[in-house]
From TrEMBL:
Keywords tagged on the record: ATP-binding, Kinase, Nucleotide-binding, Phosphoprotein, Transferase, Two-component regulatory system
Entry's EC annotation: 2.7.13.3
Molecular function per GO: ATP binding; protein histidine kinase activity
InterPro entries membership: HATPase_C_sf, HATPase_dom, His_kinase_dom, PAS, PAS-like_dom_sf, PAS_4, PAS_fold, PAS_fold_3
UniProt-recorded name of the protein: histidine kinase
Species of origin: Nocardioides perillae
Domain Histidine kinase: 459-674
Length: 675
């Protein structure tokens, strides 16, 4: 069969291309891609050599045959025939010239993926359809490699504890799931196939009270291409509530779409256990508070140790008695204890606390406390060893009553010892506790409170000292100030005003440290609760700018009527911490900006610093993690950004870091006030 007949062209000259139709037919016949033509009835009128190679049918076998019965899979034939009929009736086709991904079928019945471009024409012979078809299959080796990797991925996904998924959001807002692991049925109650078919099922299962925070976290992740980390609740199809944690990493695809690959972990059991532990912790905390209050009110000094003899508790009276300050005593070691009979120091292993721990009876015994440089005291001591129900030794507690100051040594006639004091009594009080507490390595405390105390002490020391130095300097300038009436020099008055401004900022910073510490304590104890209200944003930005080291260099951009739904004190603290962070690591903020974005207020704090190193960005908002260059980061408290995130999230908001050319930006998203 000659080429023109195979491709359905008659002789003559092509009216648009200006070439002989025979030449055009030859080009189509020898083209590397398949070319197929059909008439308005759907019968094949053109079929080139590449079509024979692709589908396995010769031109003799297919010319005049219905295309739908030849290369269209049975499940798609009705759609194909309906499309042909629609174009024949209306004369219009929305698919003209578009490249489509369609399934095809060979003469052996094998399904193959095709890339198809279709264009209809209406000529003397009536309506015709022409199509260029390309095989979209990878080569056999590549196909096997893809199948192997897909099988390996699915095997791994099945053993991951949670729902593994890939979610794609196109530039036009269309969403789909490309993969969902079978664990979906356990967490959500619907199958992976259902989730793939309906992209709204998994997001729609988020608990109604948690949807706003989920949308905010997803928006920030997609906007900044940052890892999505979200914890909340989903509603199972059977109505039960599950606690989940979602971790997902976004990537920008070549076509502009954003793809998240992540996992949904079912943490219901952990949440239930945490709730039980929290309830027990609240009860223990209340009981501990009652016990602490009772011990603090005692006039007797109370000291406790663990089974190893390490001091674990001193009440206020013990600190006062042993001349101690802070969290541990600094004086009152064993050599400060004196036997009232001999005047000899008490050995370390014979202190009342050690003897009580060893099981000896320590009741109403007398001892002299004689620290260097302080008056000698006469004490009466009682002790009790602590044991479990099984008889295991847990520690010991001693109490000491101060019965008066001693004016001289133990053998002086003027001791003033009353008849209730026996100078021959055994020696029984323990001041060794102070030395043991001082010698304990930092961080050796066994509980969260011990660790938090050590962390705060280490974190806040430099910062508090810095602000106190500023206050001392300002006060020194104020003390030496002579007014212009005395000196005739207005420059001295200006110096005073500058000093007072420094003092004011230092006091504000100290107040901020105070708020950060209490916010952290509230967070650690589960008592951080926001009370939001319609809060003006512009005054808060101006107040924060005034806290900068160089307020005049900060530009504030904000509509005066902009209001956020946030607790005012929390907004002030968030902005103050971000300004302080910029001062410490980036030479100060350059712009404080706020704007309305839909139902949220976006607050930007920009600086012109070097930014946060890539290796530190993932830990930027964690507790006791510092931003910026490690050489300068040690100057901060390592609390500010952690408190910023916690306060923002407590007000149903979110915060993110963005690197800028020649600077950095922190973006805080808060709900906008309605009305």
């Amino acid at each position: 069969m000659d080429a023109p007949h195979r491709t359905g062209h008659a002789g003559g000259t092509h009216p648009r291309l200006g070439v002989d139709d025979a030449l055009l037919a030859h080009a189509v016949e020898t083209a590397p891609g398949a070319f197929v033509s059909i008439d308005g009835a759907g019968c094949i009128t053109g079929w080139n050599a590449a079509s024979e190679a692709l589908f396995g049918w010769t031109a003799t076998e297919v010319l005049g045959r219905a295309l739908a019965q030849t290369i269209v899979p049975p499940e798609h034939r009705d759609d194909h025939l309906a499309g042909v009929a629609r174009v024949a009736q209306t004369g219009r086709s929305e698919l003209r010239g578009r490249e489509l991904a369609l399934p095809g079928m060979t003469s052996s019945g094998e399904r193959i993926p095709l890339t198809v471009t279709i264009w209809p024409s209406d000529g003397p012979d009536g309506l015709r359809f022409h199509a260029h078809l390309r095989d979209a299959r990878p080569d056999a080796a590549s196909r096997r490699a893809v199948e192997h990797e897909q099988s390996r991925f699915e095997r791994l996904a099945r053993v991951v504890p949670g729902v593994v998924y890939t979610f794609v959001l196109d530039e036009d807002g269309e969403a789909r799931y490309d993969y969902v692991s079978p664990a979906c049925a356990e967490v959500y109650g619907f199958t992976a196939e259902e989730a793939l078919a309906d992209a709204s099922l998994m997001p729609g299962a988020v608990h109604p009270d948690d949807r706003a925070s989920f949308r905010r976290a997803t928006w920030i992740s997609g906007a900044a291409l940052e890892e999505l980390r979200w914890s909340g609740r989903v509603v199972h199809r059977d109505g039960t509530v599950r606690h989940v944690a979602i971790t997902s990493r976004p990537t920008l695809q070549p076509g502009g779409a954003t793809e998240w690959c992540g996992v949904v972990e079912d943490r219901t059991e952990q949440a239930d256990a945490a709730r039980t532990i929290a309830q027990q912790g609240d009860r223990l905390e209340r009981e501990q508070a009652i016990l602490d209050a009772a011990l603090a009110s005692l006039s007797q000094a109370v000291v406790a140790c663990d089974a190893e003899g390490r001091v674990t508790y001193l009440n206020d009276a013990a600190h006062r008695l042993y001349g101690s300050t802070g969290t541990g005593p600094h004086r009152g070691a064993a050599h400060d204890l004196v036997d009232p009979t001999t005047g000899a120091p008490v050995p370390d292993d014979r202190t009342p606390l050690r003897r009580t721990l060893a099981g000896e009876s320590v009741d109403g015994v007398r001892v002299d406390l004689a620290p260097a440089g302080l008056p000698r005291r006469r004490l009466v001591v009682d002790g009790r060893r602590l044991t479990s129900e099984a008889g295991e030794v847990l520690g010991a507690v001693v109490s000491a009553r101060d019965v008066g100051a001693l004016l001289g040594g133990p053998h002086d006639a003027g001791l003033g010892v009353g008849p209730d004091l026996d100078p021959e009594a055994d020696l029984h009080v323990d001041a060794q506790v102070t030395a043991e507490a001082s010698a304990a390595p930092e961080g050796s405390g066994s509980g969260p409170a011990d660790r938090l105390t050590a962390e705060l002490r280490q974190s806040l020391g430099w910062r508090v000292d810095q602000q106190l130095d500023a206050v001392r300097w300002g006060l020194e300038v104020a003390r030496s100030h002579r007014g212009p009436a005395d000196t005739g020099d207005p420059g001295e008055h200006e110096a005073l005003l500058r000093a007072l401004a420094v003092v004011g900022r230092a006091v504000e910073r100290l107040d901020g440290l105070h708020r950060d510490v209490w916010s952290l304590v509230a967070l650690e104890t589960g008592r951080l609760v926001a009370q939001p209200s319609a809060t003006p944003v512009a005054p808060a930005l101006r107040a924060a700018a005034a806290l900068a080291q160089d307020p005049g260099s900060v530009r504030v951009e904000c509509p005066e009527d902009l209001r956020a739904w946030v607790q005012p004190e929390h907004l002030h603290q968030v902005l103050a911490n971000l300004v302080s962070n910029a001062d410490e690591h980036a030479g100060g903020p350059t712009v404080l900006r706020a704007s309305l974005a839909g139902d949220h207020v976006l607050v930007d704090v920009e600086d012109a610093g070097d930014g946060v190193p890539d290796a530190r960005r993932g830990q930027l908002f964690r507790k006791l993690t510092r931003a910026g260059d490690p050489a300068t980061a040690a100057r901060g408290t390592a609390l500010g950004l952690h408190v910023v995130r916690q306060l923002t999230e407590a007000n149903q908001g979110a915060v993110a870091y963005q690197a800028l050319p020649g600077g950095s930006r922190f973006v805080v998203s808060l709900p906008a006030a309605r009305g």
